[in-house]
Amino acid sequence: MKNFPHLFEPIQIGKTTVKNRIFMPPLSTNLADKGYEVRECDGLGYIPGEIVRFTQTQEKERIPHVGWNEILKREDSPLFDGIADGTNYYFVHSYHFQVAKEENIATVTPYCGEFLSSVVKDNIVGTQFHPEKSQKAGFKLIKNFLSM
Questions:
Q1: What is the DSSP annotation of 30-66?
Q2: Can 132 be counted among the known catalytic residues?
Q3: Of 9, 13, 15, 25, which has the fewest CB atoms closer than 10 Å, so is most exposed?
């Protein structure tokens, strides 16, 4: 994290100061404005958008989305240094993040049309996939994360 000292600065969200500045677990309502995973729920709203359930676009698509799928880069991020476009990661989810601003999309994945598979804003990054379950590609991403 030596190259990005701003990662250690607290984030002010409304009246709350968040000291845990980077979220690495799969994306959740915590980052979005609103989510619908169990019921409608307000999130922190740090990244404008909503967490919504997948809609099947082809008969062969199953929900939940479980298994390996590729990521396609939309934005350069140190998180994906040395990781080729089209690298496969492991997913387990029925919901996905629909962001309000395209600039927050780091990667997308082709499934049920196309969905955001990682997001970046300021010093926050989040993934829809599970790096810890994604073998070599996941370890590379975690290594990149730790060296930011």
A1: TTSSEE-SSS-EE---SSSEEEEE----STT--SSEE
A2: yes
A3: 15
Q: Is 59 a catalytic residue?
A: no
Active-site position among 37, 70, 75, 130: 130
Helix ranges restricted to H, the chain = 135-147
21 within 8 A of 124, measured Cβ to Cβ: yes
Q: Name the percent of the chain in helix, strand, coil, to the closest 5.
A: 20, 35, 50
Q: What is the pTM of this model?
A: 0.79
Q: Could you tell me the two tokens for 7?
A: 């990662």
pLDDT in tens, 7-50: 555 655 555 444 433 444 455 566 788 888 778 888 878 889 99
111-123 in b/e form (b: 16+ CB < 10 A) is: bbeebbbbbbbeb
Pairwise CA distance, residues 30 & 148, whole Å:
22
